[in-house]
Design a protein that fits this description.
Blueprint: E1 7-13, E2 28-29, E3 32-33, H1 34-40, E4 49-54, H2 57-65, E5 69-72, H3 80-90, E6 97-102, H4 110-122, E7 127-132, E8 135-143, H5 147-151, H6 159-165, E9 170-174, H7 187-193
C-alpha cells in the first residue's frame, strides 16, 4: 500500500439470505463455512482498518478470530444502506478511501483486491470497482469525498446509487476470471461453483 494513503474495508454481512433459505454465510463452501473462505482469502495487510458489519453471532466470532473489527447490526433494519452507515460510523477519521465488499463472493482473489488498491493509489479520487469485460461488479473502493453520500443512502439503496451519480469517477479493474464476481444467492449457485476447485 502506498505510504501516503490509508484505506479501510467494510464487509457487508447483515443480509437475511431469504433467497438462499438459510444463512448462506454459514453454509459449507469448499469444506468450510463460506464466511471463513471469504475472510480467509482477504488480504488484510493492504488495509489500515478492516470491519465486518453483521447481525449474526457466528459470523462475528469468525471475523473477530481473524482480526476484523466487528460492528453489530442489531436493529430491525437489515438494509444495505444501514449496514453501510454502521460501517462508516466505525471508521477511523483519517482514511483516504474504503473498500466495500460482500461476503458471498467466495472465488474473489487477493490478487484482484491488490489490483483495486493499486488502481486507487494511482487515481486516489476515483471510484474503483472490480469488473469483467467492462461490467462493474463488487467490491468497490470509494474515496473519502463520497463517504457522506454513502452514509446518506435511503433504505432500498446501495452504493450503486453513489456510483451512478459519479460515473465519470468510475474506473473498472478487470478480474482474471468472471467467476470471481459470482455472488451466491441460491443454494444452486454454491453447488455450481464447487466443481471448479
Amino acid at each position: 500500500m502506498g505510504a501516503s494513503l490509508k484505506l479501510g474495508c467494510i464487509f457487508l454481512a447483515s443480509g437475511q439470505s431469504k433467497r438462499f433459505q438459510g444463512n448462506k454465510l454459514l453454509s459449507e463452501f469448499n469444506g468450510r463455512p463460506m464466511i471463513e473462505t471469504v475472510l480467509g482469502n482477504f488480504p488484510c495487510e493492504l488495509f489500515n482498518q478492516t470491519i465486518v458489519v453483521t447481525r449474526y453471532a457466528e459470523v462475528a466470532v469468525t471475523a473477530a478470530q481473524r482480526g476484523f473489527t466487528v460492528v453489530e447490526n442489531d436493529g430491525a433494519d437489515d438494509s444495505v444502506a444501514r449496514t453501510i452507515r454502521l460501517g462508516l460510523d466505525a471508521l477511523t477519521p483519517n482514511l483516504d478511501g474504503c473498500l466495500f465488499s460482500v461476503c458471498d463472493q467466495p472465488l474473489l482473489t487477493a490478487r484482484s483486491i491488490q489490483a483495486i488498491v493499486d488502481e486507487f493509489i494511482a487515481h486516489p479520487g476515483a471510484i474503483v470497482a472490480l469488473g469483467y469485460h467492462g461490467k462493474r461488479g463488487n467490491p468497490v473502493l470509494f474515496p473519502r469525498a463520497l463517504f457522506s453520500e454513502l452514509g446518506a443512502l435511503a433504505p432500498g439503496q446501495s452504493g450503486g446509487a453513489v456510483v451512478a451519480a459519479h460515473t465519470p469517477l468510475l474506473r473498472i479493474v478487470e478480474a482474471k476470471n468472471r467467476l470471481e464476481l459470482v455472488d451466491i444467492d441460491y443454494r444452486a449457485d454454491a453447488a455450481s461453483l464447487r466443481p471448479l476447485f
